[in-house]
Amino acid sequence: MKKLAMLGDTYPSQLRVNPRALGELDVVWVGESQEVFRSEVPRLRPNVLALDFTDLGKVPPQLVPELMELTGARHALVSYRQTHHALLESLSSPRVRFIQGPTPLSVLRAHVHRVLDEPRRPESNVLGMPRVPRPPRFSPEQLGQLMELSTRGSCECANQLARLVGGLRGFEEYAGGCERPDEKELRLHGLLHRQVAFAREALEDGLVALLDHQNIRI
Question: Which position has the higher pLDDT, 110 or 44?
C-alpha cells in the first residue's frame, strides 16, 4: 500500500476539487497545520510525505528530516515557489525530492510512484551523486529509554547499541559543526562527519532489527 500524507495550504482544496487525481494512492492525511500534522500523522505511518512550502528560505533546515523521522516516512516530496539553494544542498538525498510548485495532483502522483518504484541504490542517489546518510532514527529520549531497558536474561545488546548510537551521534554533531580555518582540515572533518554518520546509520539498522526481534516498543 502506498500511503501518502500531505501538508500544504493548497492540498485540501485541490483534493476537494479533484478527489480522484491521486488514483490508487492511500491519502492518510491532508491539512495545513504543522501542529496537527505532528500529533496525528505519526500513528498513520505514511510511506511518503508531500510537503508544500511557499518560501524554502523560511523553512528550518531540520524540519523535513524531523517530520520524516517523526512519521517513519521513507521519502519526502518538497514543493516550493521560492527556492533557497542552501537548503536544497543541505537536504540533498535520495529520500528527499524537490519539485517546483505549485504542484498539480497528477504531477504529485507521478512523483510518488517514481520515488517508491525506483530501485534502491545503497551508495548513490538518483543523480549518481554520493549518498547522504539518513537523519537519526532515534531521539535522545528514545536512546535514553533503551540504555535503561531491563534486559532479557544476559542479553544487553539493546542497551549497548543504544550507547554506541548515542556516542556516534554526539561525535557526528560535533564534527558537523566543527569550524576550521584551514581548507584541508575542513575537508577532513567533513569526511569524518559523513563516515561517522554512516556508522551511526548502520548501527541504527541493527538496533531496529533487534527491537523488532525482541518485540520491544518505545
Answer: 44
